[in-house]
Write a structure and sequence with these properties.
80% of the residues lie in helices and 0% in strands. It is built from 16 helices and no strands.
Length: 315
């Protein structure tokens, strides 16, 4: 009987596997709340498209989630072999090296990123010496202030972009991530999608640590251009980095729940953080647990309605 059942499910899975396109497998992986299962879905997609670097990035992210750092590293090395100038791959590999206590290799990757030539680059950065920088800094700051006024108050996005380009040309390079972020936003408003994508990419290249939001913005623009897979990769990188950064905040509520297992407020707060990191099913579980201890809690009820609707949309 067991043998018959095994054969039955094996046949069903084989039929299902045959019916799926690579993108369907990818979407199954992206929608899975279990990183181990997601990695298996991405493996199926890779079998169909073994030269698609984006799928290896997705599988590497899933493997990193389950602390399979060696497996993730193998995938990222494959990406770099396929696309030697893939900035995202070097960032992920640098982080993996850090997790594997190989910080020197990690720093080497982070340094290499700055030297990569972005395809379609619209900037010509130069380095000014300290004296020259002091001489031009005041004028450059005035021009950037003018750009911000045009952007925020006058809604003159074309004028704002022109001023920011002037600022960059005077300084030689963007000093801080704010300059590039507003330039990307302005170009987006001007309908210059390619320039906006390149600007977000430059922002990621130079200010990765403080510019994780650029991945989310770039994802939206890639989707507008019809690059569904590129958009998905950017969004998964964004969500994964958010989870890493929210880990300490979530652990604070983990500790509170350990001390007071019936503390509904802690479940509410942890659920809110999980929603921010797109862990909707886990958030719903926390909400239901909180409601178990506080059935009349209006905030939990309201949040449950919202999260349930979001899950239904995804499925």
């Amino acid at each position: 009987m067991k043998k018959v059942l095994f054969l039955f499910f094996a046949i069903i899975f084989a039929v299902d596997a045959h019916a799926q396109t690579p993108m369907e497998w990818i979407m199954k992986g992206a929608n899975s709340s279990n990183s181990k299962i997601a990695a298996k879905y991405y493996t199926n997609a890779i079998k169909a498209e073994p030269s698609n670097a984006n799928i290896y990035i997705l599988r590497a992210i899933s493997k990193r989630d389950i602390k399979d750092y060696k497996g993730a590293l193998d995938d990222i090395n494959k990406v770099i072999k396929l696309e030697p100038d893939n900035i995202d791959a070097y960032y992920i590999r640098g982080d993996l090296y850090k997790n594997m206590d190989n910080r020197l290799e990690g720093f080497a990757d982070f340094k290499k990123i700055k030297k990569i030539k972005i395809k379609g680059d619209i900037f010509n950065f130069k380095t000014l010496d300290e004296k020259k920088m002091k001489d031009v800094q005041e004028d450059a700051n005035k021009i950037f202030d003018s750009a911000l006024y045009k952007f925020k108050v006058k809604k003159d996005f074309k004028g704002a972009a022109e001023d920011i380009y002037k600022h960059i040309n005077i300084i030689g390079k963007p000093v801080g991530n704010t300059v590039l972020f507003y330039l990307a936003l302005a170009e987006e408003q001007n309908g210059n999608i390619n320039k906006a994508i390149i600007t977000y990419t430059t922002l990621i290249q130079h200010y990765y640590i403080s510019s994780i939001k650029a991945y989310k913005k770039r994802s939206v623009l890639k989707k507008q251009k019809g690059d569904e897979l590129g958009a998905l990769v950017d969004m998964e990188i964004y969500k994964n980095e958010l989870r890493i950064r929210m880990k300490s905040k979530i652990s604070k509520w983990d500790d509170a729940i350990k001390q007071k297992p019936k503390y509904s407020f802690a479940y509410l707060q942890r659920a809110k953080l999980k929603i921010k990191t797109y862990e909707l099913k886990s958030a719903l579980k926390d909400i239901n647990t909180g409601l178990k201890f506080s059935p009349d809690n209006k905030r939990l009820k309201k949040l449950k309605k919202k999260v349930t609707a979001q899950i239904a949309l995804k499925e």
